[in-house]
Structures are given as C-alpha cells and as structure tokens.
Amino acid sequence: MRSTKLIYSLALGLLFILTACSGAGSAAPTQVREPVTLTLQTNPDPAAVGQVQLTFTALDDKGQPIVGADFDVIADHTEMSGMTLQGKATDQGNGIYAITTDFSMVGEWKVSSQIKTDAVDYQKDFALQVQ
Length: 131
Prior knowledge:
The chain is α+β, with helices and mostly antiparallel strands. It is 15% helix and 50% strand. The protein has one helix at residues 2-21; strands spanning 36-43, 50-60, 70-77, 84-93, 96-103, 107-116, 121-130.
C-alpha cells in the first residue's frame, strides 16, 4: 500500500513538472516590428572583386519609402584587419540608396549601414560574400 502511494505521488509530481515545462497556456510571443526595413542588393550579383554597386532599399515601419536620409556605409573585411571602405550612399528616390565601392579581396565582408533622418536613426549590418 505504501509503495502504491509513493508511485502515485511520483507520477503526479512528474506530471506537474512536465505540464509546467511544456509552455501550455503561455501567451504566444509577440512579434516586434523593426522601425526600418533595410535590404541590400549588389550589382554584380553575386558581388565580385572590383567595382560593385551596393543598393539599399529603406522602408519605414508602415512600409513607406524613407527619402532624403543621410546614409553612411562602411565595409570591413572580416578576416583581414585594415581593409575598410566607407562612404555615403546617395538617394536614388523612392527609398533607394546606392554607393559604388571597389572590393579588393575575396572573402566575407561586413557591410554596416546607418540611415538618419529627423524621425529615423537606424543601423544594420549585412554579411556579404565577395567572390
């Protein structure tokens, strides 16, 4: 009789632990929307050593183009220190900003972008493989 109570107690305790750990009844995670949607395209695609145009598309949290912004771009080779390119992307209209750069080496580059207006100050990094 005593062992039966012990088994029931252990089973009930295990059931309680499993229920608590399952996440049942917890609220669904809320999705946080970024204040800016920023995408990067290259020409040529894929990016290659030499002249490459980096084209960014910037949309606000309502999906509207961000125009007239100050747009800084810095590219660093992730495997070789001292290989840094930087400049300003120019406004092409309709939320599109472009800069032409000259990648001198193959490999992984980190492209850091910062877009600023009176209402927006947003930074985003992109991993870019140069062939």
